[in-house]
Amino acid sequence: MARQERAIRTRNRILDAMASLFNEVGYDAATIAALVERTGLTRGALYFHFASKEDIARAVLEEAVTRRGLRPQPFKVQEWVDLGLLLACRVPREPVLRAAIRLSVDPKARRLFGTRWPDWVAVGQELLVEAKERGELLPHADPAAVSRAVVGSWTGVQLVTEALGDGLDLAGEISMLYQLVLPNIVTPAVLARIDSSAYRAERLLREETPEADDTR
Amino acid sequence: MARQERAIRTRNRILDAMASLFNEVGYDAATIAALVERTGLTRGALYFHFASKEDIARAVLEEAVTRRGLRPQPFKVQEWVDLGLLLACRVPREPVLRAAIRLSVDPKARRLFGTRWPDWVAVGQELLVEAKERGELLPHADPAAVSRAVVGSWTGVQLVTEALGDGLDLAGEISMLYQLVLPNIVTPAVLARIDSSAYRAERLLREETPEADDTR
Fold it and tell me: Which residues bind DNA (chains A, B) (predicted)?
């Protein structure tokens, strides 16, 4: 058990280090040599966990669609909002999640590995379809179109917030995004009971039990 | 005059070709050698117009903040919407505009040249401040925050729409984005008179006189 735990830790250390390289220099310029230097691990140890750089990139994208911190809520639309708030809270701290976005906007990496956006759109759409069946959404709100628009918007707000710097906080910017779109999607009675505040995700993650961790 | 016109044409041909290379292989992998091959021009001709690859990248970003097709409208908020609709119409056709986005999301290019997002945020904010002074916006709409959110959202919707493929049309997706946010920004009386349809930009560009072309 201790040995297995150590192996998982090493694997995560490799993933984090390579993800940071992807973020700093881009997919093409991130090399196994730089990874060896950064982690201090031997090539043997690296290749025990991953066959190649491509393999690490695939593992990074594998982790990108995560529901960590998400719990059942009285309103399905709250769960949909929580997904985006949780990610906004985690992305600035977790290089692997940032790298997944980076790889998705890199022409070469995108050609090799595709993106996880179709999966995110599907996850959001599913929650919004349920929300609509329960009468939480306004009649004209189209779950597929709304999910697509918000996956796109979320991604762009992350990229632009990161580039603007300027002391901007992603959780705050994403909270603003939901406050801008929610009144056009959700019925007023439900809207009044939805929490889209910037500090909500922090609380959800704190309350999470270690066993509920579905990803790392 | 004819000679000057030919020079402008050659310059634009180089810009378009290098922009396409940036889009296809990314900033790092796009080389002057590939540009020579693609344009059929001599290195001498290239270096007459641009000193280096960096110089071409700067010229690409130079063209990114464009008001082509924009004309005074009865409502300032219509001009703000028009900016985004016009760009959505032009980006799929103009490699230089697409390359400006590509360079902005590339870690190396961003470090070298920055992005034009702060300029876009400023342009949008200025229009929204005027709109607010004229009473077109709802009291709680904050021009700076709204402009930032929509520059981010616009960018992400472009990136995700391009990646999803699937017959999605950027003009339609961006029109949807405005329809999602406008009711929370604009007063109802003004909202009823704002055109955010997907085909509006096409018409604005068609009506434009060649003299009004402020960019190319």
Answer: 31-50
Give this complex's ipTM: 0.92
CB < 8 Å to B23, chain A: 107
Helices (H) and strands (E) in chain B, counts: 12, 0
Chain B contact residues (CB < 8 Å to A): 23-26, 28-29, 102, 104-108, 110, 115, 117-118, 121, 145-146, 148-149, 151-161, 163-164, 168, 173, 176-177, 179-181, 183-185
What CATH code is carried by the domain that includes residue A14? 1.10.10.60
Separation CA A83–CA A88 (nearest Å): 9
B89 in the same domain as B195: yes
On whether residue A70 sits in a domain, the answer given is no
Question: Which tokens sit at A216?
Answer: 């790392």
Name the percent of chain A lying above pLDDT 70: 96
**What is the interface size between A and B, counted as CB pairs within 8 Å?**
132
Closest Cβ opposite residue A163 in set B117, B161, B180: B117
Judge if B201 and B117 occupy the same domain: yes
CATH number at residue B194: 1.10.357.10
What percent of chain B is helix, strand and coil (3-state, nearest 5)? 70, 0, 30
Per-residue pLDDT reduced to its tens digit, A77-136: 999 999 999 999 999 999 999 999 999 999 899 999 999 999 999 999 999 999 999 999
Nearest Cα to B64, choosing from B19, B21, B31, B29? Answer: B19
Q: What is the pLDDT of residues A147-163, one digit of tens each?
A: 999 999 999 999 999 99
The residues facing A137 across adjacent strands are A186
Domain count of the fold of chain B: 2
Contact A26 B155 (CB under 8 A): no
B94, pLDDT greater than 90: yes
Residue in A107, A164, A177 closest to B117 by CB? A164
Average pLDDT over residues B18-32: 93
Residue of B nearest to A164 (CA): B118
Burial B168-182 (b: 16+ CB within 10 A, else e): eebbebbbbbbbbbb
Contact A150, A131 (CB under 8 A): no
* B148–chain A nearest CA distance, Å: 8
Q: What is the mean pLDDT of the segment spanning A170-177?
A: 97
Q: Which two tokens stand for residue A167?
A: 């002391």
Residue B67: inside a domain:
no
Q: Which chain A residues have a beta carbon less than 8 Å from that of B168?
A: 148
